[in-house]
């Protein structure tokens, strides 16, 4: 059985059959002056902490390949690292046929993930939500995804408390929400003086409101369907959002 490789902005997903078996960092780091490659993939996060002038490149964004050179560099590094010989790349980018990279269409890929009885498949991605109507073989896209959800959560703090969360703390907070843990307080960074401040979350419903609105936007499109399959990311984020 071959593998399917699917790029999602700063992450590359590797599928074997219906199963997502691995996620890797999609980034390529280049020297800002020489353009030489410094690091590829999962090691980029630590490398970025070093005092080097670097350009961090995610080769795909908003259904476009921003850099074909880095696209090939990253894909072939992934194949080498994971000893993958037989694979297909999910073509969400209107790419022309490549001699060295076999493609699979987005619809064929989504069909490979569903069960026979599924009527709809919903996929939360970094910057979009995919709604795949199986019988109609049609895709609808909501241009809001995981990154937007993090932004919504952060907006609660800067709109109501004039402070912000860094990305890691925002992800940690979303993970608690996903586990149905009610958050009483959060340490944020003040916009006024940059100090850490303890913020009491006095209105948890207001914090969750953007997530509820997004879930409702999805639900209005699938209201007449019964057998719906969600990818793991969607289930985890929205499991306790009513």
From TrEMBL:
Superkingdom of source: Bacteria
Protein's name in the database: Uncharacterized protein
Organism: Spiroplasma tabanidicola
């Amino acid at each position: 059985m071959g593998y399917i490789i699917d790029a999602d902005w700063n992450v590359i997903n590797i599928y074997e059959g219906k199963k997502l078996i691995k996620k890797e960092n999609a980034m390529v780091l280049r020297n800002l002056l020489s353009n030489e490659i410094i690091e590829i993939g999962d090691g980029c996060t630590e490398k970025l902490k070093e005092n080097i002038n670097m350009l961090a490149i995610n080769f795909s964004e908003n259904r476009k390949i921003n850099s074909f050179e880095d696209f090939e560099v990253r894909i072939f590094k992934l194949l080498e690292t994971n000893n993958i010989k037989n694979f297909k790349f999910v073509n969400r980018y209107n790419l022309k046929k490549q001699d060295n990279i076999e493609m699979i269409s987005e619809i064929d890929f989504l069909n490979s993930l569903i069960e026979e009885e599924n009527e709809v498949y919903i996929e939360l991605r970094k910057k979009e939500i995919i709604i795949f109507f199986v019988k109609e073989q049609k895709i609808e896209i909501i241009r809001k995804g995981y990154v937007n959800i993090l932004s919504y959560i952060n907006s609660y703090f800067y709109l109501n408390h004039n402070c912000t969360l860094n990305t890691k703390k925002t992800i940690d907070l979303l993970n608690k929400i996903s586990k149905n843990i009610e958050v009483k307080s959060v340490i944020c960074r003040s916009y006024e003086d940059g100090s850490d401040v303890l913020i009491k979350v006095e209105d948890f419903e207001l914090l969750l409101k953007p997530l509820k609105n997004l879930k409702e936007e999805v639900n209005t499109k699938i209201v007449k369907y019964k057998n719906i399959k969600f990818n793991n990311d969607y289930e985890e984020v929205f499991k306790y959002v009513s």
